Amino acid sequence: MLKTNWMKRAVIALLPLITLLTLACQKSPYPGYEKQNSGVFYKLLAIGEEEKKAQVGDYITADIAYRNMSDSSFFNGRRRFQLSATHFSGSIDECFAMLSEGDSASFIISADDFFLKTLETQKPRFLINQTTLKVDIRLVEVQKEDEYQREKEAFLTWIEDFGDYEKVILTQFIEQKKISAKPTASGLFLVTATPGKGPSVALGDTVIVDFEGKFFNGKFFDSTKKRNEPFSFVYGQKWQVIDGLEEAIGLMRQGQKALVILPSNLAFGKDGSSTGIIPPFTSVVFEVELLNVIKGVPPSSKTGDAKK
């Protein structure tokens, strides 16, 4: 193991030289990126300490950021999902399969292929004039399916006990705010402040929302309004939003404003947020406004479960 770690550190130290040599040979149009046979451009940022390479069928946890070619980010978050087989050359699944646990890399992929083939929806208007996009990935964890299932079973058993305290806090908040709405089957509360008169949301639609995320004490942890940057994503597809927000938005109509209360299992779970701002097992509140619903093409069955 010491030898392996030493070799990895040596490779990291040589990365700038390797990159220069690669550029000299391949003449990539994107400085620092190496072109793969599939057409994906790839830049290694860091090498992890583990040799666990992501394979099709593995459950992976990754920090993912999508950026346009001007480096403006339109999504940044941590997601866990089961890695799918590559359905076409140059897909984003291929990018994940290139990495081992702990690796970080930046990729440049076709924007049209990502939205039209992977997500099976229209490309967002803010990317309409761009043929490529950047995807930054840090592969946090790789788990075989049996490992994932064992951890899930252990977690569900443990949270039955731990969840009692969170239930007390959640109940007190509901009573304090005099909320009469009943929770959904999953446990979220949705309280409409302003009804919507536009279309409802369906799988494959591109939705544009403003939201403000708060703790129960009223302290903000995120706000698109403060950034003056509404959030756009494809409804029903993986790597988009936390489960609770996806469910809530699916219950809304264009123009609707609502208060959404999420227990931790629908928000940031046992690990908390990847930034460390939101602690584990923390219920949160979102004020959500569904600004626009752009009708898309419903995903076919081959995309599998979109709420991973």
UniProtKB/TrEMBL annotation:
Keyword tags: Isomerase, Rotamase, Signal
Start and end residues of each PPIase FKBP-type domain: 204-294
GO function term, MF aspect, one: peptidyl-prolyl cis-trans isomerase activity
Stretches that traverse the bilayer: none
InterPro entries: PPIase_dom_sf, PPIase_FKBP_dom
Chemical reaction(s) catalysed: [protein]-peptidylproline (omega=180) = [protein]-peptidylproline (omega=0)
The protein's Enzyme Commission number: 5.2.1.8
One Pfam family named in its UniProt record: FKBP_C
Coiled-coil spans in chain: none
Cleavable signal peptide: 1-24
Family: Belongs to the FKBP-type PPIase family.
Protein name: Peptidyl-prolyl cis-trans isomerase
Organism: Williamwhitmania taraxaci
UniProt lineage: Bacteria, Pseudomonadati, Bacteroidota, Bacteroidia, Bacteroidales
